[in-house]
Amino acid sequence: MPLVSMTEMLIKARKGRYAVGAFNILDYNSIKAVVETADELQSPVIVQTSEKTVLFWGFKPIITWINELSSRTAVPVAIHLDHCKDLSIIKNCIDAGWSSVMIDASSKPLEENIALSQEVVKMAKPFGISVEAELGEIGGVEDDISIDEENAHLAGVKQAKIFLEKVKVDCFAPAIGTAHGIYKGEPKIAFDRLKEISQLSDTPLALHGGTGLSEDIFKKCISLGCSKINISTQLKYAFIDGFLNYYQSKPTEYNPLTVLKAQYISLKQAVAENILLFGSNMKAK
C-alpha cells in the first residue's frame, strides 16, 4: 500500500494501549527487514531516518526504496524523519515524499521551540504529513547529537501544556529520563511526569531512547500514553553483529550476498522482538 502518515496509526495505538515501533534504518537491507517483518506480524510500522542517513544516501534513493517495499504490503508503513534541527532538510524530505517529520528544537527556549515547531506544522500539514516535536532534552548520543546527563532535562508539565495548546503536533516527545544509546546504569524514568503530561491532551506520545529498557518500563510507558517507541541503537548493533557473527563462523568465505542475508536475519529478529513486546502485532488487520 502507499506510504501513510503516522497520525492515524498512533491514534489507534493510544486508544488500543499498544505502541508502534519506529525503527531507525541504515540502508535498503534494513528497510527491507523492517517492512517485511511488519508484514509477517501484521503490524503497522514506522521506518525512521536520521539526518545523517538521509544526507549519506540522498533523498531520492531512500524514498524510492521505501515506496518499492511498502507497495508489496498491506500493512500501514510511515517514513519518518527523526530528530531534525535543519528546516531545509525537513523541507526537502517533505518535497521528496516523506510522510512524517520531526522538528527537534528542544535545545531552544520554549517560545523559540514553539515558533519553529509551528513553522514545520505549516510546512507539513497541507500535504497530510504528520509532525513530531520534542520538549526537554533527551540525554545520550544519537548520530552527531551528544547531550550529557548534566545538560539533559525533563519536560516540564506547565511548559508541555503551553506547547500542546500552541502547536498542533501529531506526536509529542517529552523528555522523561530516557537516553539515546546504551544505558550505563538503571534508567530513572519520571513516570509521574509522564502521567501528568499524558493527561494534558489526547496527543500520542513518543518514547525516545528505547533500546535497553526493560519490558516492565515499556509496558508502563505504553499504559501512560506512549504510542510510538524509537529503536535505533539496537538495530545498529544487529546490523554490525549480523556481519561479525557470520564472518567469525566462516572466516574464509567471501560472499557478500550471504553476509547481507545474515545482516537481514539479525535485523529481522531485533524488529520482531520489539513489535511483539509493544503489542502492535496483528493490529494492522
Give the radius of gyration: 18 Å
* Unreliable runs: 145-151
Number of strands: 11
**Inertia-based shape:** globular
Please name the CATH topology: TIM Barrel
Termini Cα gap = 13 Å
CATH C-level category: Alpha Beta
Described by strand count, sense and barrel closure, the largest sheet is: 8 strands, parallel
Indicate the CATH architecture.
Alpha-Beta Barrel
Mean pLDDT: 92
Please give the count of helices: 11
The run of helices and strands is HEHEHHEHEHEEEHEEHEHEHH
Give the DSSP E fraction (strand runs of 2 or more residues).
15-25%
Write the layout of secondary structure elements.
Layout: H1 7-16, E1 20-24, H2 28-40, E2 45-49, H3 51-57, H4 59-70, E3 77-84, H5 87-96, E4 100-103, H6 110-124, E5 130-135, E6 139-142, E7 145-147, H7 157-166, E8 171-174, E9 179-180, H8 191-198, E10 205-207, H9 215-223, E11 226-231, H10 233-249, H11 256-278
3D architecture notes:
- The protein is α/β, with parallel strands linked by helices and 285 residues long.
- The protein has one domain: Alpha-Beta Barrel (TIM Barrel).
- Helix content is 47%, strand content 18%.
- It has eleven helices and eleven strands.
- Helix 2 packs parallel to helix 4, helix 2 crosses helix 11 (256-278) and helix 10 packs across helix 11.
- The protein starts with 6 loop residues before the first helix and ends in a 7-residue tail after the last helix.
